Every structure is written in structure tokens, then in C-alpha cells.
Amino acid sequence: MLMADAVHIALAGNPNAGKTTLFNYLTGARQHVGNYPGVTVEKKEGFYLHEGQGFRIVDLPGTYSLTAYSVEELVARDYLVNEQPDVVVNIVDASNLERNLYLSCQFLELGVPLVIALNMIDVAEKRGIRIDTEKLSRLTGVPVMPIVARTGKGVEELLGTVQAVSRADARPQTLIRYGVDIDEALRELVPIIEEYKLLAETYPASWTALKILENDEQIVAKVMLENMVVGQRLIDRSAVLARHLQDTLEAYPETVIADHRYGFVRSILR
Ligand SMILES: Nc1nc2c(ncn2[C@@H]2O[C@H](COP(=O)(O)OP(=O)(O)OP(=O)(O)O)[C@@H](O)[C@H]2O)c(=O)[nH]1
Ligand SMILES: [Mg+2]
User: Fold this and answer.
1) Which atom of ligand 1 has the smallest separation from the CA of 59?
2) Its GO CC terms (predicted)?
3) Residue 21, ligand 1, Cβ within 6 A
4) 88 lines ligand 1 (CB under 6 A)
5) Would you list the domain boundaries of the chain?
6) Cβ(119) – ligand 1 distance below 6 Å
7) Across the chain, where does the E strand assignment appear?
8) Which CATH class is domain 180-269?
9) Cα–Cα distance between 113 and 9 in angstroms, integer?
10) Which end of the chain is more exposed for a tag (fewer CB within 10 A), N or C?
11) 22-63 pLDDT, tens per residue?
């Protein structure tokens, strides 16, 4: 079998969600797992062969967000956009759904091919938490597969779905709305980013626009490097939004954006 045929998957999710546990289960590796978050700081790579299909698996550090504020977040997000895995498997702690889905929102925004692995189903069941996986799948627009990484329960089915998604080559569309002011700014920024093909190789225009409004230093710098004149136009528009939100809500754009992600999550969990 050629390595080129392997499905390239990245395990991503919150700290302590069970990424390394699944990685170890699949690759036979003995990477350290811990009861405290932030155990994995570097990415680890392994290989898994399943019914004639090879999987190249990357275990990413856990993050709560995909901003540019911490090394872990930058490692995870740069890996996803630079290495472009065939499928991102978002390991979600089923016993802590609201917090975990906040990060899932950001994978949806990034538009990466996504499968949600609902891990720690055993813990959730013990606590009497029942999750409607079909509803969750319908509302997020991506497959949701329940697993217990510690025992391997559901992992076969998860890999089958991962394989199908890698063949389909489909990218999820984000269904998240951020309120009238931000949505309006996005509607203005996106066509400009598209017209000048800013960061077009790596990021969807809607994501780049959102990051400019969030004042994400890394993305703003990349945009300026590509086109200073257009970049300045986008920054100026973003500043108008920031002032408006400050005047009307006394809030920063990134706070309003985060609030709307949580709103989306809550609407899903209702
Ligand atoms: N009961 C149960 N425990 C699990 C399951 N999966 C993982 N764990 C436990 O959860 C804890 C955290 O697991 P890790 O695999 O280290 O989590 P991680 O996502 O790699 O964490 P970071 O590297 O910090 O991002 C460990 O104590 C695991 O044994 C599961 O399905 N059920
Ligand atoms: Mg880990």
C-alpha cells in the first residue's frame, strides 16, 4: 500500500477530551494521557491500518478556542490550514457539551472537513446525560459519532464515517450568525477579500473576514503582507464596527462574536 493512499486525519478538540487516548488506541502508541488539561503540547503523528485502508493520524494539542493567543492554539490552527488534513476529527467530551461545542463552532467557521466524535459517552451515561446525536448532526451539518476512546467502542464506525467524508471532499458551511452589525460588516468585507484573493490559498474569505473583525494579529499581519492598501481598507471598516459596538453595546467585536457562538451552541442544545 502506498502512503499516498492513507487518509490524513487530525484529532482536534478541547484539552482533556480524550484525543491522545484515541490516538494511543489507534496507533498503539503510549503517549502520555493525564487527568489534567494541556498534556499534549506538540503534535504527534502515527499510523493505523484498518481493513486495507491506511490512516495517518495527528494528535494535536487541546485548545478551547482557535484565536492567536496561545502557542497551542496557533499550533493547532496552523496545522489545520497549512497541512490541510483530509478530515478533522473533533473529539468532544460528551459530558461537557456546551464548552466543547464552542470550539466545534470555530472548526465550522474554518470550513475544514469535519466529523464530531462524541467521546466519553460512558461518563455522560453515568451522569444521566442523553444526547440526540442525529439532531446534533442535523444542526451542525456534520456527522456525529458516539465513542468511548478508552475502550475503543464506536471507533470502527467512526473510521468508516471518516473514510466516507474524506472521499466526499465536502466542506461544511457555517450556519452561525453574529448579529446585525457584525453580519453586515462581514457582508462588506467578504467580497473584497474574494475580489483580491487575499489568503485565498489557505482560508475561506468568510473566516478571514471574521478574524479581521476579531482583530486577530496573525491574520491581520498576513493580510497586510499580501496587500497593504486593501488590507488597510479592511482594517478601517473593522475599526468603524468596533467603534459602533463600543458606542451601542460597550462591547468589543470579539466578545460579541463569542456571545453569538455560545448562542448558536445553546440553540443546538435546547
Ligand atoms: N471514562 C472515560 N475516560 C476517558 C475516555 N477517553 C479519555 N478518557 C480519560 O480522559 C483523560 C484525558 O484524556 P487525554 O487522552 O489525555 O485527553 P487529551 O484530549 O489528549 O488532552 P490534552 O492533551 O490535554 O489536550 C484521561 O484520564 C483519559 O483516560 C473515555 O472514553 N471514557
Ligand atoms: Mg493529549
Assistant:
1) 20
2) plasma membrane
3) yes
4) no
5) 3-168, 180-269
6) yes
7) 7-13, 44-50, 53-59, 87-93, 114-119, 144-146
8) mainly alpha
9) 10
10) C
11) 999 999 877 777 666 666 677 889 999 888 889 999 999 899
